[in-house]
């Protein structure tokens, strides 16, 4: 596969032009930014966690923010902004650790594939900077490092830790057995929505909230399928040669049609969420309307045969589409907060006046 030329391309590795059998077990040539200030022995582990490439972090973190925004809109009593800020900070730290563990596991499992794919062949394990045993040990250490975060969250949040871990672990193996690993990937990401609801002590799967919650969950799964399939087009030719399965390989030239269909269903699910949850016009205009425009225009614009364009879609999608979803949800929350404040003030004034008479 042609090497991405966009300097912002996620996971760009400056592939070694030599064959995989001659990849040197030396530090990455991309020693800049965070990697340049770390002690040399630490740099490969920072690479393994993708600390030098933040774009993929948004895929982990945004579902938790979506869950917080949604739960804040349906919670009773309504949570304070301070609580939302606190939880978003906890999940921010948790997602750094979760992403690091997921990437470390994925790179270890996929090291033979990575050596055959130009964009991935200079990853730390693939090039030999980290051994297989060191990679597994580091993965386990990260998993343990995330455990204390559950001490400051409601116990219900811990119920989602096991399925998220299992699903991320399974995803790394799916490209060997199915053309639809992106479907599997969507589920652990979307589980972040449920964990965020639990963090705000919202029973997201209660009889009243089950339908809108599942609609939001499904919309996130579809969004993951869209952006990860387009992202996988960067490696399409190399993946075919290496025997890697994906939706990009399965649909190839029909990916835009598939992405457009999934996008329509995704927006339809957002509409169901707002309808079932009795959200206001703010949600429908921004979360449904603006995100639909952003997603549709990006699908139309992306050039699947250009790796840099696929990377652009992956990067900007989290800002344009994800940002629209979040602005609509948190706009709904703040509007609800203001309505409640007005109602409470009116009740106080009314009680005062009636008391006077």
TrEMBL record:
InterPro entries registered for this protein in UniProt: HB_polyprenyltransferase-like, Prenyltransferase, UbiA_prenyltransferase, UbiA_sf
Required cofactor names: Mg(2+)
Keywords (A to Z) from UniProt: Isoprene biosynthesis, Membrane, Mitochondrion, Mitochondrion inner membrane, Transferase, Transmembrane, Transmembrane helix, Ubiquinone biosynthesis
Compartments, record wording: Membrane; Mitochondrion inner membrane
Ranges for region Disordered: 1-31
Pathway as given in its UniProt record: Cofactor biosynthesis; ubiquinone biosynthesis; Secondary metabolite biosynthesis; terpenoid biosynthesis
Reaction catalyzed: an all-trans-polyprenyl diphosphate + 4-hydroxybenzoate = a 4-hydroxy-3-(all-trans-polyprenyl)benzoate + diphosphate
Keyword flag Metal-binding: no
HAMAP family, per the entry: UbiA
Family: Belongs to the UbiA prenyltransferase family.
PANTHER family attached to this UniProt entry: POLYPRENYL TRANSFERASE AUSN, PRENYLTRANSFERASES
Function: Catalyzes the prenylation of para-hydroxybenzoate (PHB) with an all-trans polyprenyl group. Mediates the second step in the final reaction sequence of coenzyme Q (CoQ) biosynthesis, which is the condensation of the polyisoprenoid side chain with PHB, generating the first membrane-bound Q intermediate.
Protein name: 4-hydroxybenzoate polyprenyltransferase, mitochondrial
Source organism per UniProt: Lepraria finkii
């Amino acid at each position: 596969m042609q090497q991405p030329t966009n300097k912002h391309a996620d996971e760009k590795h400056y592939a070694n032009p030599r064959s995989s059998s001659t990849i040197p077990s030396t530090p990455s040539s991309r020693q800049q930014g965070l990697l340049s200030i770390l002690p040399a022995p630490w740099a490969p582990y920072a690479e393994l966690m993708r600390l030098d490439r933040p774009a993929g972090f948004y895929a982990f973190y945004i579902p938790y923010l979506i869950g917080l925004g949604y739960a804040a809109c349906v919670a009773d009593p309504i949570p304070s902004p301070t609580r939302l800020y606190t939880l978003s900070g906890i999940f921010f730290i948790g997602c750094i650790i979760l992403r690091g563990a997921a990437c470390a596991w994925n790179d270890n499992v996929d090291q033979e594939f990575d050596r055959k794919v130009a964009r991935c062949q200079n990853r730390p394990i693939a090039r030999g900077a980290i051994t297989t045993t060191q990679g597994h040990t580091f993965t386990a250490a990260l998993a343990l490092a995330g455990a204390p975060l559950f001490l400051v969250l409601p116990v219900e949040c811990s119920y989602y830790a096991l399925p998220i871990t299992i699903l991320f672990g399974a995803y790394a193996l799916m490209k060997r057995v199915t053309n639809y690993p992106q479907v599997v990937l969507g589920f652990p990401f979307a589980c972040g929505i449920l964990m965020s609801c639990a963090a705000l002590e919202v029973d997201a799967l209660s009889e009243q909230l089950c339908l809108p919650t599942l609609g939001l969950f499904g919309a996130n799964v579809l969004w993951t399928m869209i952006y990860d399939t387009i992202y996988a087009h960067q490696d399409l030719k190399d993946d075919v040669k290496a025997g890697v399965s994906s939706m990009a390989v399965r649909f190839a030239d029909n990916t835009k049609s598939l992405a457009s269909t999934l996008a329509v269903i995704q927006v339809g699910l957002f509409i169901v969420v707002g309808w079932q949850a009795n959200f206001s016009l703010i949600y429908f205009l921004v979360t449904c309307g603006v995100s639909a425009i952003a997603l549709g225009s990006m699908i139309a614009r992306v050039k699947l045969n250009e790796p840099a364009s696929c990377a652009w879609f992956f990067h900007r999608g989290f800002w344009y589409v994800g940002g629209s979803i979040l602005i609509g949800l948190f706009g709904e929350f703040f509007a609800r907060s203001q309505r409640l404040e007005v109602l409470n003030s009116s009740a106080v004034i009314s009680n005062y006046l009636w008391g006077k008479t």
